[in-house]
What we know:
The chain is α/β, with parallel strands linked by helices. It has eight helices and twelve strands. Helix content is 18%, strand content 17%. The strands form three sheets. A five-stranded parallel β-sheet has the order 4-3-1-2-5. Strands 6, 8, 9, 11 and 12 form a five-stranded mixed β-sheet that branches. The structure holds iron/sulfur cluster (2 copies). One iron/sulfur cluster (SF4) binds at residues 258, 261-267, 291, 308, 310, 312-313.
Amino acid sequence: MTSGPLHALQVWLRHEPEEPDLELVCAEHPDPSRGDRARTVVRLTVCASQLPWHELAELLLVGARTVTVRLDGCADPDASAQNVEAVARVLHAAGVDRLRVEGGEPAADAPGQADKKGRGLRGRRVHRPRPVLDGAHLPVPRRRLLGLGVDVSRALPDMHAAPQVRLTAAVRALAAPGVAVAASADPAATATAATTPISTAPTSTAPTSTASAGAAPGPAAPGPAAPGVAAPAEAPTPAQAPRDGLDDVNSPAVVLSAPGCTACGVCVQACPTQALTLQHNGGGAVAISTLLQSPSACDGCQRCVELCPADVLSVAGQWRWSDLLTDSTRGVATVSTATCTRCGTQFPTTSGERWCQVCSYRRKNPFGSALPPGVAVPTR
Ligand code: SF4
Ligand code: SF4
């Protein structure tokens, strides 16, 4: 479970009856009480350069009308602007202009009550301080303690999902409002639900994957409505979400290529976000094993590439954000495999061998304990 620096704010927002215009200010800001009084000001608990992208985007999902990150007073405004603008750019490309960065001088105070020109009795401008909420100790309304007043349409994100999965789900939901999209904690669970054939995997600009074709069937078409049952109103699907702007924005997810893959499954085990799956189709002596990647779950860490024992997995480019709007999986490699009749592991085969490499080697070397050179410990 990952609860980041904006989680408490997300919980608080969900109980707010009105959608506020949030202004996030640095923890060290000397005086955030000055500025636009129409905004709700929250003092951050961390530097804006460390705000997680997924939590920033999720603020707009759970109840903020707009989010402005104010950088005057920030100790490292360049890094902070870079961090926030990275996610603002993605949202902008998706048609969502509700996350902004504001630097420089704070906005002028609203006029005080002294006179109509906003001047005090001695002609000086009156400063009426804005209330500033502490991001670490947000108020808890009584209605919340009683479990009342929660807007159920603003669901909290899945805290068990990986950050990249949460960011993708947030961008997808913001780009196509009205489509129920939840960040799944187990992207692999959706791997078989919608699988895109390998030949259509890369975008026009992404490098071509070397995976072979015919990996898996496409998504199932919805069936007709039962007689006498009104067809449901047509809701936009995630695939119909705005894609044009996102076609030009690289995501962190990497396009993988694995010519010569042995279907050992080490990369599947190594992936921290469960973005990779290995499917074995066919229960006979020979099966077709397909290595699949879910781009919407990949955060580009490349741990899979580093740990591939056969050294055949490589990065061939980056997926575009538009490729992440659906839950489809993309083929990385397809290989013919057989089940070892001795140890039961799946191993690549070309000529109908019955024993895997390791069992064959051990049979020939009954007193040896080492694996043959270059062979990884097989996984089932
Ligand atoms: S780069 Fe590889 S290990 Fe990292 S998230 Fe993507 S698929 Fe998983
Ligand atoms: S670790 Fe390498 S050889 Fe093993 S399944 Fe992954 S890509 Fe294929």
